[in-house]
Amino acid sequence: MRIFATYNIKGGVGKTATAVNLSYLAAQDGYRVLLWDLDAQAAASFLFRIRPRVKGGGKALIRGTRSIDGAIKATDFDNLDLLPADFTYRNLDLLLDAAKKPASRLGSLLAPLSSQYDVVFLDCPPGISLLSESVLHAADALLVPLIPTTLSVRTLDQLTEFIGRLDGTRPAILAFFSMIDRRKRLHREISQQLPAQRADVAATAIPSLSLIEQMSVQRAPVTAFAPRSTAARRYAELWREARERTGLPAPARDPRIQ
Amino acid sequence: MRVRSYLQSILRQFVLGGGSDPDPVLELPGSAFALSYAPRSATLRRVWLDTFDWRLYRAGLTLEQATRSGGRAELVLTGRDGEVIAEDHLARRQRPGGGEAGAGPARPAWPGLLDALPLGPLRDHLGPVVGVRALLPVARAVSVLRDMRVLNSDDKTIARACLDRMSVTYPEAGTAPPRLSLTGLRGYHAQALRVAEWLAAAPGVTDASQTGLEAALAVAGRRPADYSSKIDVTLAPRMPAAAAIAAVLTALFDTLVANVNGTVRDIDTEFLHDLRIAVRRTRSALKLTGDVLPSGMVGRFRPEFKWLGDLTTPTRDFDVYLLGFSGMAARLTAATPDELQPFHDHLERSRAAAQRELARGLRSARFSGLGREWRHALAAAATGSTRPTAARLAASRIGRAHRRVLRDGGAIRATSPPESLHELRKRCKELRYLLEFFGSLYDPGEHWRAVRELKALQDCLGEFQDMQVQHEEIRAFAAQMMERRAAPATTLLAMGEIAAGLAARQQQARSEFAGRFREFASPAAQSRFRALTGAAAT
Question: Would an 8 Å CB–CB cutoff place B188 in contact with chain A?
Answer without folding.
Answer: yes
